[in-house]
Amino acid sequence: MNNNVNRDFNNIHHQVHNHHYGIPPAVSSNPASEEAPSLLPFNGAPIDRISSCFTGREPELDFITTSFNTFQSDKPTRFVIYGMPGLGKSQLALQHANLAFTAGTYSHIFWVSASTVEKLVQGLAKILVLVNHADRSHPDQDVQLAAVRLWLDHAKRYGCLRWLLILDDVTVKSIHFLREHLPQQNASGNILITARTYSIAESVANVAGQEHLIFELKALSKAQSVDLLLRKAGIQTSAAADLESAEKLVSWMGCLPLAVEQAGSYMNGAASRAPVRCRECTMSGD
């Protein structure tokens, strides 16, 4: 009797856990694997790097989410964000990860720096550690890379119902490596990629003859940039002269979020009154 009660409880727990992510219970051809404990959900993205003054980007965040939800593929869906340095591509990717995990869209999120092959190898190997894979300490790099790909291809078997892999700052040096080692099965996985140029974005968006999603990130609007500048500077003002000075300053910086945020930090740390410092910065930039 007790065994029946325990079995019923485990079945109910498994169904509720799967229902949270909107995905039907995984079916395994190996009965032994069904008895293995599910992998607890986690967000492995460094979300503590998200700026406390993150502003705007609601349309972009909505577009990423909608694109992932509607793109039809029998492989992991890829979404590539490209644009010049300083636009906030990494911040946007991290914010998507943060919001999506909180909403229960993904059960597991992984983040890997993709600027060099060495960083890719290290980042992918870390996934094995996060999921407690048997090959996490294997001395052969090729074995580890194959293990990561197979795990992501068949993640449901291990209790990973829906995953997101973020590849941050893909470069020309890492394109060939990614073609060889990224998972190409499992439609329950998504891959979010950041890159600096369209040519790189195009190279990693094409998978087995299917072109996945490419999105060019633009600068913030002038109003969003002014809001970011003043919040980072700790300024609360509605004075026309101060707002005009702020508009000139952010325009001079091209409304690039990174530059605007750095300017705001400088103003916040200045000893003199911040609005005056803002006007001084504007005059020095003309």
UniProtKB/TrEMBL annotation:
One of its GO terms (molecular function) is ADP binding. InterPro entries: NB-ARC, P-loop_NTPase. Residues 73-234 form the NB-ARC domain. Pfam families: NB-ARC. It comes from the Eukaryota. This is NB-ARC domain-containing protein.
